[in-house]
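quick one, 90 residues, struct below
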Amino acid sequence: MSPTVDELRNEIRVAVGRFEREGSAGFTKEDLAAIAETVGHDVGAKPFPPKSEMRAAIRDGVAALDGTVEGDRALRKAELEPLAAALDGA
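---
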């Protein structure tokens, strides 16, 4: 059985040194900043850039993800799976 979106998000959080969350919770700005830095994007000091900018940096930083996604949308399950795999190998 494949992992749920929540399980994938928690796996990614743990891989970048963040804490797991109970229940359904999207990535916070802090989560996204930690992920972006892990894939090689410097987000700078606080205040963090917008979530859309960090998501784009994450998509650009992982070869298996499409960096040309239009608009501001959350990372989907099809993107979380290769991201989790990339972070597992990092």
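DSSP finds four helices and no strands in the chain.
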